[in-house]
Every structure is written in C-alpha cells, then in structure tokens.
Design brief:
This protein is mainly alpha-helical. The protein contains twelve helices and no strands.
Length: about 325
C-alpha cells in the first residue's frame, strides 16, 4: 500500500469518527443547554464587545476580503481553490442545517447581534475551520497554524458568548469543517489532474450552470426556511467570473511584485470596491428573496474576479 492510499484511508477513518461524534452530539440535550453560554459569560465578564468584533472574522465580507487579497496579489491559484472550498462548505452548511432543523437559542439571550435561519451546524464555526484550516494546511508555517487555530476557536466561542448558537452547534460546525477538509485532501489531486487535462473554461461554465440548476431546484421543491441564493449565486458568479477572466484577462497576481506599493494599492482599492458594491446592493435589495440574494453574490464576485483585475491590469498595478 503506497503512502497516498494510506493517508486517504486515515482521512476516511477521520471522517467516520467525525460523523459518529456528530450523531452522538445531536442526541445529547446537554450540548444544547444555555448553561454553556452562561458559563462562558461568567468566566469572561464584560467581553461582549470583544466577541462582537471577533465574530466578524467568521463573516462573508472578511472571508472574501482575505481570499481576494490572496487572489489579486499573492497566489491566484491558491485563492481559486480556497474559493471553491469555501463555497462547497456553504452548500454543505445549507443542507446540513436543513436536515438537522434545530432552532437557535431564544432571542432574549442574544447580545449586540441578530441572527436568522437555523442553528446547527454553526456556519461561522464551520466556515472558519474550513477557510483558516485550508490555509494552514497549504502553508507549513507554524505561526499561521497558531493564528488559524486561535481564530477558529475564538470565532466559535464568539457565537456562544453572543448567544446566537448552542455549544453543540459550535462543536458540530467544527466537525463538519474537519470532514470537508478531509474530503478536500482526498480529492484535490484527482480534481487538479482532471482540470489540467480538460478545458477549464468549460468546467467553470459548467459549475455556473450547476449552481443555477441546484439553486432553482432547491427553491422549487424543498420547503426550507431560508434560501439558497447565497451559495447558489456564489457558485454562479465564481464559475462565470473565472471563465471570463481566464479567457479575456488572465492577469498575473505576481505582476509588479517588485513594486510593493502597486500591489498594496491593488489590494486595498480592490477590497474597498468589493465592500462598497456588496453593501450598496445588500442595502437596496431583499436578500430574503433567493434570486435577489443570488444577484448580490453574482455581481460582487464578477466585480472581484473580472472587473477589478481588468482595471488594475490596464493600469499596470
């Protein structure tokens, strides 16, 4: 048995262990008792503003700012993979919450924040473990590993402290993240080999079409409390954006890397542009309507993947 097969078997065993832990956690009422939240608040009194700040590290804008910082100026290939991993996690979280169908703690327990939709698994806990975990796995840097672990733990604790998640939600979110990363490690190489031997433009367009079909079918036939416009729109925008960028722009993330100020401007202005577009559209549309939510994500991703790179490439930034 070669090394790769051994590693994959270990990862599959890890997935099985996580699935068992999730199943056990779901039937333990103690994990969904607010006593854990109260205990955390008692141990860390007056920390609500700190955790309100920390919880944003598990939010959409922070993830996209991080990923597009990498995409525009550090490692374009890594950022593209991270985008797909993050969006796959969003789909898993959507259907996971729908299947488990557990409500959040009572709104009277929430502090400095509001939340919607279902509770288990915690999207913040799952996404932070997937995004920061993937970055740590791809960089053999002990400092990045420590920072990633601290962020993953603190983001999870912030959701408990602010009262919008049960302790069980956080644990299950982390376990879902481990499962997703395990499958990524198993299938990443075969997927890379497939993409390298086929027309990637068609693959990206196929993913965009897949996102559209899955989103429409889910909204039409599944009676779920919240909509799939976010993950669906993200996959559509990502697929369309990468297809267009690869064919017509194909920028080099390392261009002008010897001119630091150009790279810094490229990243800072890009983040500002992305955030402004996202927030303006978010404020003028109703994201509770799935197709509007999808438009929000499609447009903002096209701005980040296509429009801004075409601008800074022409300006030679």
């Amino acid at each position: 048995m070669d090394k790769k097969t051994t590693v994959n078997l270990i990862l599959l065993f890890l997935v099985l262990v996580c699935v068992i832990y999730i199943a056990v956690a779901l039937i333990l009422p103690i994990l969904f008792d607010f006593i854990w939240n109260d205990t955390l608040r008692t141990l860390l009194p007056n920390a609500e503003y700190f955790f309100r700040f920390i919880t944003e590290f598990g939010g959409t804008l922070i993830y996209f700012s991080l990923i597009f910082t990498i995409y525009w100026g550090i490692n374009k290939s890594l950022a593209k993979k991270l985008l797909f991993v993050y969006m796959a996690s969003n789909f898993v979280n959507y259907y996971g919450k729908s299947i488990i169908n557990r409500t959040r703690p009572p709104e009277s327990n929430w502090i400095l924040i509001s939340a919607s939709h279902l509770s288990t698994p915690s999207g913040h806990a799952q996404s932070s473990s997937v995004v920061w975990g993937y970055l740590a796995l791809k960089n053999r840097n002990i400092l990045l590993w420590i920072v990633s672990l601290v962020i993953i733990i603190l983001v999870g604790l912030s959701r408990m402290y602010l009262g919008v998640h049960w302790f069980g939600d956080i644990l299950i979110g982390w376990l879902f993240g481990i499962i997703i990363l395990s499958f990524v490690l198993i299938f990443e190489e075969p997927i890379n080999n497939f993409v390298s031997t086929h027309n990637s433009t068609y693959i990206y367009l196929g993913l965009a079409i897949l996102g559209l079909i899955v989103m429409i079918l889910s909204e039409t036939f599944l009676n779920i409390e919240y909509n799939l416009g976010g993950p669906g729109g993200q996959l559509i925008g990502l697929g369309l954006g990468l297809a267009i960028e690869e064919k017509y722009i194909n920028f080099d993330a390392n261009a002008n890397y010897d001119t630091t100020w150009k790279v810094v401007i490229r990243i800072l202005l890009g983040i500002i542009l992305f955030a402004v577009v996202y927030l303006v559209i978010y404020l003028i549309i109703d994201t509770d309507v799935y197709w509007m939510n999808a438009i929000l994500n499609i447009v903002t991703l096209l701005v980040a993947i296509v429009i801004w790179p075409s601008i800074f490439k022409k300006l030679n930034w």
